[in-house]
Amino acid sequence: MSIWNVLLAILFPPLAVIGKGCGSVLIVFILTVCGWVPGVIAALIILNNPNR
To answer: Exposed/middle/buried for 17, CB within 10 Å: 0-12, 13-18, 19+?
Structure first.
């Protein structure tokens, strides 16, 4: 996980996980609409997952 991905996850979470698949982007987008902090947390978790 690079520093650019972390900064992008903090500023605009759905854009940070765009390379992880459509489902990840949709989940992070919905969480970001509900609240910015849940979207950021979900994006960081998805980016930190080594299996994806």
So the answer is: buried
